[in-house]
Each structure stands twice: as structure tokens, then as C-alpha cells.
Design goal:
By secondary structure, the protein is an alpha+beta fold. Helices cover 43% and strands 12% of the residues.
Amino acid sequence: MIIDNEDYLAHYGIIRRSGRYPWGSGDIDNARNITFLDAVADLKSKGMSEVEIARGFGLSTTELRAGKSVAKNQQKQAQIAMAQRLKDKGTSTSAIAKRMGLPESTTRELLKPGAQDKADALTSTANMLKKEVAEKGLLDVGSGVENHLGVTRTHLDTAISVLKTDGYELHPVTTPQLGTVHDTRLKVLCLPGTTQKEVFLNKDKIQQIGSVSSDWGRSFDVIKPPIEMSPNKIGIRYGNEGGNQADGVIYVRPGVDSVSLGGSSYAQVRVAVGKDHYLKGMAMYKDDLPDGVDLLFNTNKSDTGNKLDAMKKNETEDPDNRFGAVIKRQILDKPGKPDAKITSVMNIVNEEGDWGEWSKNLSPQMLSKQSPTLAKTQLDMTFERRQKEYEDILALTNSTVRKKLLEDFAASTDSASVQLKAAALPHQGIHVILPVASMPATQVYAPNYLDGERVVLIRYPHGGTFEIPELRVNNNHREANRLLPGAKDAIGIHPSVAQKLSGADFDGDFVLVIRNNQNRIQTAPTLEGLKNFDPIAAYPKYDGMKIMSNTQTEMGKISNLITDMSLKGAPHSEIVRAVKHSMVVIDAEKHELNFKLSYNDNNIKDLKRKYQSNPEGGQGASTLISRAKARQDVPHRKPRSMQKGGPIDKATGEKVYEETGKISYKTGLPRTQRSTKLAEAKDAFTLVSSPSGTPMERLYADHSNKLKAMANQARLVSVNTPPSKYSASAKKVYETEVASLNSKLTLALKNRPIERQAQLIANANVRLKREYNPNMTQKQRKKIEYQELENARIRTGAKSKAIVITPEEWDAIQAGAISDSKLTQILAKADMDQVRKLATPHDAKLMTSTMTNRANAMLASGYTRAEVAAHLGVSLTTLDTSTVGSEVE
């Protein structure tokens, strides 16, 4: 049919797109628009689809629709103009209708006040875009912008198409999404002749439609320039004066507003001292400070005669980041007010209560150094919990919700198959450590645990069981109660205990505290070779020595070596060498240690050759535990398109990608993206040490494979889940609820362009700071990325607030009042925990026999009823009616 109409399609004349047939801005002969619309209508009446018509015109369907919109708009403008001219001449409405060949009702609409404004809306939008692009050069017109403009997406796309026909460029661009491994996708409208490469190289100059402040809203900053404290109010307790027993602690005089911790008993802080220095450490109140001193800083350094030498120098000259850390909050006179003044020198990084919120799962680096029996128990619990979650999702009645939750579940299970974290042990938690000099070395002040019970402290990373102290809880200790009354997530220990914890400091170091009344966690005496080993004294710097700047990388290398050696049964004499070097590495940057000499003295090269050699002759992580998250670069890719079969393999449920073929503008080479070895491995056993791996590796490989299979199964079910049914009658019945849901979705979508702007601003600032400090460590870069993104979100007003669906709105959804596509959009922005509760059948069986058996086993092992209920995802009432065990303390 296209061939039969080829001559017709080529010569009817359409509004200007390219070539000999101009389409344009309203001054075109209206007959051309009529001809175009008639041609489309005629072809459609002859059975041609929209896709076929567009192909015949050499257009995309989007361009065809835009062309029709422009033509109709200009046709209507011409009709309004003619009707108004005739009206001005005194012609009656009925005569005008007869002359124009229109129904009288249509003619009255054309003559209504405001009709021309409505007809001009598209032209006005196009002119606005032209003005914005002329002023700003690069304009974000991506998803969500239409909500800010108050127009539909189709209307905006049509206006963009008008500009494209006048030579304006529309380029897709991606920018790294800070805080994730993903990209933020943008559509950028720019001046004629602008190339995609130019847009890519100037991403920081992409702006939003509408007026913006010249400083990107910097007046809304929350984190303000810190108050600078005078050194005269600060005392220093040096190493030989006892400062080494509390290295990193800042004692604070109680009752002084200028050094207040704002309601916390302890906090990890930064304090600006003068213009060029600052204090970094854990602040805690102490009521016997020397006269004239409001802060007493403890350090293991020696007195040089200048107290500033004991402090840190500013990380950079950047006033927004002088501490090199993300500041959580400051003490303000009017919290939440943009004009609030700072009242305290304390810039808080973490405060009382923060550590208790951190993840409590068991890492493979820790659990793999314990017994296989314990590892299997905790991994099995992890798998069973996911299995229960999967079964709960399958029981949901709404197919669209079920599909969404299955997709999310598959993604999180994929991640779990790589992270390899195991379920927590009874009553374990993260606690920051603080010194109590009079506390016996065999005891610990731990208000979250019972007096007299035994607990173990585990610091990440650690070399082995010989770096795990076991202590008895003493919550009646007088000094500890005075320093840390009822501490929420801190423990008090004797300073010597910190040394067993692989040389921990008291400047914010934290440990995993685990109840050990039943001896689940293995411990061992400190290895002889590590007793009294002082890395600072053993490996001081020399003049001209290059200071380590990649602690995280070097620590990762030596930690992997220790893990591989432990799994392969290395003797203690060799473990000592590796652990000594790890103690040097972890403090090399902070204390300027000669880590290269330590590498040679401990013959680390020989250990790597012995325990990390591979068949190809290279060296590196050699066991599944150490290789799982090792970096693996893969060709830049995207989920496989629907035209090629879709992103999910319909037979296996596996994710399928296709290479993009993109070229790096910087190097000219094909782009790659980061992944990990275990994420890319279909079978985890391919990463175990040869020939078949150690017993512990086999446990983890089997666990990873089971999780991968579960994720694939969830995807397979998801892709075959039919959409929910839509009911027009239900939409009328639930008109109020539908309107409310639409309003909530519109509000949520408005955040998208602002979030993109925040990402762009943050990326630009991060790049500038990296250029200023090219030797920035990965750890420093991550901190700055987080800090800049949070600041940019504050400055632009970007907020991420989940949609909360009411029970009445859920009834509307269940009745089919919301279309599948709209519901999918809502769920993408919704509080899915709340949605899950709404979607869960009230008569569902919550405790299977498997769950009951697991619950009884956990209760017998020492888990509390609350911990068991949380692990199984049931209420305490349901747990109590389904179990025969009792809580064991």
C-alpha cells in the first residue's frame, strides 16, 4: 500500500520538516495544513496504520503526531482569525458558520473570549523554549519538566518538535547518578548546530526551564561555615601524659553552650580551630577539665611546643569541605530556619543513636573466619527469610503490585547473591567504642546487654579470631556510668582492649557487639608476634617520604590476602606477618607511616605468591570470599530492547543485555562499565580456589547460586504476570480517590527535573574539587560526592517523598479504577512497604511448618521473641500462637 501511494506521499506537501516542503511557525498557507491532515486521514481510511503512514512520510510516529498537532493548531488559528474578521464586519454567527462550512456550535467556540489564547498555547510554548534556549544554551526538557510547566507531556513534545524543525537539536545525555552505580538520563534541547559531544562536555551547564537564582539557591544552605574556635580554649593531652590511652577523644566541659553537643551524650565531630586547623574525634562530656579549657583533645603525638601540630590541617581550601567529611548537622538557635545562627563549634558527623541504625548482618569476611557450622546456620536463615518473602509476594492479589514487588525482589536478591551477607546473631548490634580508663580489661560497659553476660567485639576488618576480645558486661561501673549514662549505641572499654581490636582508635571506630553466652563465636588469644607491636613506633616516616593516599585500596588488598590465607589454613607465623602489615596500612595515611618498608620487612610479596597465585601466573584474590566483589569491567551495555526479545530471558529469567557501542569522548575507545566478578558469574563455583575450593567457599558458592536461581525465578514469574484489569465504571465510582492518586503522582513527578538538576550541580562541584585535589582518595571522593549531592538537593529544593496510598485509594486500585500503566507509575514512587501491607490477604497463613521449626530453633539458640518475629516477618502474637519454644536470655 505504501508503494501504491508513494507519489502521493512524496508530493502532498507537509508542514516543514526538511527539504522542499517547509513547515513552520504559523505563516504557512492554511491549505497546506488541511492537505496534510486530509492526506493522513485518507491513508488511515484506506487501512494504513499510523506506523505505516509515518514510514511513508519518512517520519517517526512521534514526529507524525507532532506534525498533526502543529497542523491542527495552525488550522484552528486560521479559523479563529477568519471568524473574528467576519464578526468584526457585522456578520452573524450563523452566516459565519455557513460561509466557513462549520457547525454553528463550533463557530461559537471559535468566537469565545480566550479562544485565540488556547490556540496560541503551542506557539507560546515553542516561543518560550526558544527564549530559554537562547538564554541558557542547554535546557533540560526530560521527564517531569511538563509537570512544572503545567502542560501535558504530549504538548511539550510537540513544542519541542516545532523547534527541531527549525534546526534546534535534542540530544540524550547521561550523567553519573551520585551515590549509585546508575546514570541519570536527560533530554537536552540546544541551539542549532550543537553536537551531542558538546552537550556531554558541558553537562554542568544544563539548566532548568524557568527562573533560577544565579547561585543555584545557595541561600537555602543548611550547613553553614563553621564557627572557628580559639586554640586558647583547647587543651592537649599528649601521648606521654595519657593521651595515648584515649587517642581521638575530645573531652567537653558540660554546661557551656558554645561547645554543646545538642542533646547527645557523645558524638563524632569536627571542630574548626582558627583558619587552618581542626579537631577530629569523638566528643564526650567530662566535668573535671583544667581551668580555662572548654575542650581537651587526647592524642598519641608528642608535644612539639605548638599545640596546633597535634591537630589536623584543613583538608582543602574549599570552605564547603574544609574537614573532608560529611557534616550531618550543626547546633542552631532556630533549627529548620534558613536564617538560623550557629551556637556551638560542634559540627556533627554522627551522634548518639546513629550507630545503632547501621546494618547488623554478618559479612563474609567475618563469618568465613568462624566455623562452617555457624556459617551454614546463618546463611540458611538468610535464604529461608528470602524464600518466605518470595512466597508472600506470590500470594498478593493485585497483579501489578505483585509484578512490581517481584522485580524489586529479584534485584535485591541479585545483590544479596554478590554481597554474601548472612543473618544476624542473637542481640547483636553496632556500637562506637569509647575509653574508660578504670574499667578492667576483661569487662565492658554495655547498657544494651545484661550484667554478667559475655559478649564479643568484632572490628572490620580483622585478621582472625585472635583479634576478637570476649568481655563480661559490667553496667554498674561508676566512671562508665558517669561518662556514658545509658548510652544508646556506645560501649566503654579499657584502652588496652582497643589494641586487640587490630589497633582501634577512639575517634569514631566502632565494633559489632555479639552476645556469646553459648560460645557460638570462636575467639583466640592474641598471637605472640602481635603482642606489644606498635606500628607507629615500628614504621615512622622519613624525610621526603611519599605519604600513602590510597588507604582503602591498600587495605582491601591486605584484607583479601588475610582472608585467603585464613581459608587455606596458613600457619600463625605467616598470619602474623600479614596482620602486622595490615596494622601499618590502616594507620599509614593518618600517622604517615612507612608502609613500603613494612611490605618488604613482612615479605608480603612472598605471601601473595604462595596464597594468591593463579594458573596464568598472575596474583590477586584467590578465594570466592575475596573475589566476589572484585571489580570486573564489561562493555557498556543496556537492557536488551523489546524489539530483540526484551531485557529478561523468557526461558530462564536471567537478565539479558546488549552492548551500546558507545565511544568515550575522553579516550576515543569503546566505553566500559564497572561490575563485579560474582555479579558476572552465572555459577559461583567458577570463582572458588582450585580445584574445588575450601569447605567455607563451597558453602558460600552454594548459597550464592541458590539466591541467583531465586532471583531468576522471580523475574520469570514477573515477566509472565498479566496486567491488572481496568474498569471505566470503577473509575467513576472512585472518582475522588482516582483524582487524589493522580494528584499525588503529579506532585512526585515534579521532583524529577529538580533531582536531575541537583545531580548536575553536584557532579560539577565534585569535578572542580577533584581537579583542585587530583590525589583525592576514593574514600574522600565518596564523601565529597555524598556531601555535594545532599547540598545540591537542599539548594534546588529536590525532595524524594514516597506516595502514601490510603485504604480508600487502595480499594479504588483493587477495583480497577486505575489503569495498569498509571498504577505502575504510582508504584514506582510509592512507599512499597505500606503497599505490601495493603496488598497482603488478611486471611493469609502467616506461619508455615518450616517457619515454626525455624522459630523454635532460633528461640532455643538465644534469639529474643522480637528478633525471631522480625526475622520471620510476623507479629509477636502470631509467633506466640505458632511456637512451643520460649525466649532464652
